């Protein structure tokens, strides 16, 4: 597997790469990816859990014990539980969001997928999303996984971000370009 140098260079990327290797050996990549999604949702929904991972006053043992309980409640796999314990012992719980992002990138690359973020002024229908996905898949030459968000400030159109590439077809950008052209 070829992992980008950017992912390998970061601390979160090294942890994510190690977790991916362990999950691959155990054949549990999908389960770990699901676990990380649950953990990410838990961090965004629970200020207490987020505080647990970022508070320097929480000892390693306290953090490990608390995360063990949280992991059991969430139904996380043994590998993910042990990994969280390792993060707690190494005082790296604050790296969890970056580890989740890096793990997703590694898993997607392994599956031959690329992620695309689509911002639109209004929610897109399932048919529009399917059409966009097929066009982006044809353009990229590999499967595209879409994540969407609504940004009313765009006024209309789409802004698609795939890796470092950005396709801006929003009305806001077109109006700004027209205003700049009229000033010249």
Question: SSE layout and pairings?
Answer:
Blueprint: H1 5-9, H2 11-26, H3 29-45, H4 47-54, H5 60-74, H6 78-89, H7 96-111, E1 113-120, H8 126-140, E2 143-150, E3 158-162, E4 165-168, H9 171-183
Parallel strand pairs: 1-2
Antiparallel strand pairs: 1-3, 3-4
Structural summary, described in words:
This protein has 184 residues and is an alpha+beta fold. 64% of the residues lie in helices and 14% in strands. The protein is built from nine helices and four strands, in the order αααααααβαβββα. The chain has helices at 5-9, 11-26, 29-45, 47-54, 60-74, 78-89, 96-111, 126-140, 171-183, and strands at residues 113-120, 143-150, 158-162, 165-168. Strands 2-1-3-4 form a four-stranded mixed sheet. Helix 2 crosses helix 3, helix 2 crosses helix 7 and helix 3 (29-45) crosses helix 4 (47-54). The protein is elongated, with a radius of gyration of 20 Å. 20% of the residues are buried. The mean pLDDT is 89.
């Amino acid at each position: 597997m070829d992992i980008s140098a950017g992912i390998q260079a970061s601390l979160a990327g090294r942890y994510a790469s190690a977790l991916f290797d362990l999950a691959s050996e155990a054949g549990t990549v999908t389960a770990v990816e699901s676990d990380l999604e649950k953990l990410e949702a838990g961090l965004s929904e629970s200020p207490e859990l987020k505080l647990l991972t970022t508070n320097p006053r929480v000892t390693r043992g306290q953090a490990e014990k608390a995360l063990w309980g949280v992991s059991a409640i969430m139904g996380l796999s043994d590998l993910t539980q042990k990994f969280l314990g390792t993060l707690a012992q190494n005082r790296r719980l604050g790296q969890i969001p970056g580890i989740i992002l890096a793990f997703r990138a590694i898993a997607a690359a392994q599956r031959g997928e690329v992620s695309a973020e689509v911002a639109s002024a209004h929610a897109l229908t399932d048919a529009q999303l399917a059409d966009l996905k097929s066009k982006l898949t044809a353009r990229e030459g590999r499967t595209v996984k879409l994540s969407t968000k609504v940004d009313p400030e765009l006024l209309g159109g789409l802004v698609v971000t795939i890796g470092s590439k950005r396709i801006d077809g929003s009305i806001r950008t077109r109006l700004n370009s027209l205003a700049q052209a009229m000033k010249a």
